[in-house]
Amino acid sequence: EPEVTQTPSHQVTQMGQEVILRCVPISNHLYFYWYRQILGQKVEFLVSFYNNEISEKSEIFDDQFSVERPDGSNFTLKIRSTKLEDSAMYFCASEAPSGGATDTQYFGPGTRLTVL
Amino acid sequence: QKEVEQNSGPLSVPEGAIASLNCTYSDRGSQSFFWYRQYSGKSPELIMSIYSNGDKEDGRFTAQLNKASQYVSLLIRDSQPSDSATYLCAVYSNSGYALNFGKGTSLLVTP
Description:
heterodimer; A: four-stranded antiparallel beta sheet; globular; B: 53% strand
């Protein structure tokens, strides 16, 4: 069964460094998402991406964040200058639009980002 | 800010019993509702989606939706220890892009 994959599974970085988290969505999906989950807290929406542009972003997704689909398979999240509070699990999700309310997002296994 | 509320639990039920998980949402215009299961340290895994008022059954799981009361629930019949996890209720935002998640209810099924 097709699934969303993410690399790396765990990323440790120093505060102020740039990180790129990578995702390979399910191949026939057209909508792509990033969510994060700080330890012990709820899953929070960051950004959605469709047709090579951002379709929606949350207030969390500030100028330090960017997303890109550099080729036909990868979807990346870049954090330009990491802060301690960026430490979280980052989930990529993808969706095959079937027309309105029935669309379902499938999540990848996540990347645990630790900022020291 | 559109809110999705869940009792954090833990909800403890004996093996073989019915577990009942509840969720309320604030946006009366919400159309699509999802239940995800999340094991500790893992990603959310879709269990069920529901869009129409009433019940929807899938194996041991039944989702119930009452849009007038802005209430969605998940029943797990014949609960098993492997069902022990956090259950997340999620609702699409008005834009239809973002999923708004509740904090989740922790379920513990005891042998």
